[in-house]
Amino acid sequence: MLSCTVLLLIVTVVRVWSYSTGPPLSACSSMAPSVSGHLAFPMSNSGSPYQVQTSAAEGYVPGGSYSVNITKKLLNDSDFRGFMCQARVADGNSTDALGSFTTFDTAKAKNLSCTTSRGAVTHRNRDLVSEFTAQWSAPIQSGQGSLRFLCTVVQQKTVFYVQLQSEAFADLSATTSPPTIAPTTAEPTTAAPTTAEPTTAAPTTAEPTTAAPTTAEPTTAPEPTEIPTVASFTTEPPTVVLRPNDEDVAKFKEYFEKWVEYFEMWKEEFAKYQADQCGI
Question: How far is Cα 93 from Cα 16, in angstroms, rounded to an integer?
Fold first, then answer.
């Protein structure tokens, strides 16, 4: 009877893998719901009915407080049940959560310790909500560069959108620092011709002698060397988004469907085993 109980517990754990009270710490990196628990793949973000907005859109100051909102694009779009938000570096592949979520409706949400104790915020229960707002404190250390919010939104078990992005927002402390001194390579200056004004000696009582004009040969400085244009270091590199190709997704989907098929077969065999051995 003990073996029957253990097997029943395993089946139960698989069936509730969708975490109605928020995702586990293992989701901090991918921010993706369990495929085996939700029995579906993420929807395309281009068709998402939800959007992520922030009051930091014009930029942030280290240590400053800003809001982040998950809202529906249209009033008649479906409400959602689950969510998870982090702030990350806008460019690059870092999965570190930056800053901390400090204020929100604790009846709906809670912190998740991604990178720091308040590095992420997620749903607390499966109640439907039409929007969600939280206050976020930017990292105290300057030099983090441009950031953006990433939010995963779960509409229902088989419909979810992973890492919806807000607009990137820049570190304003970098733009308000003392002006950068330009390279000291001086612009070549062309010296003015040293053509001296002819000087006529003042007449004396002797035969006036007119000094020969001291017209010097004009000396022309070298032609100015054109300073090569250096691209502004404030230009951000293009954002590179790595996505699996269609072939990989198709293979993964095929393997997953086979796994589900085998799991269903195993359940049937287990039911027979229960009927024969456990008297259920």
Answer: 31
Q: What is the pTM of this model?
A: 0.58
173's enclosing H/E stretch is: helix 172-175
Which two structure tokens, joined as six digits, stand for 254?
Answer: 């095929």
Between 136 and 273, where is the model more confident?
136
Distance CA 222, CA 55 (A): 54
Phi, psi at 131, each rounded to 5°: -160, 165
DSSP-assigned letter for residue 225: P
Q: In the numeric block, which tokens belong to residue 68?
A: 């982040």
Given a contact cutoff of 8 angstroms between Cβ atoms, the answer to whether 81 and 156 are in contact is yes
What is the rounded CA–CA span in Å between residue 249 and residue 260? 16
- Radius of gyration over alpha carbons of the chain, in Å? 35
Q: What is the mean pLDDT of the chain?
A: 78
> Residue 244 CA to chain centroid, in angstroms?
19
Per-residue model confidence as pLDDT tens digits over 91-142? 988 999 999 999 999 999 999 999 999 999 999 999 999 999 999 999 999 9
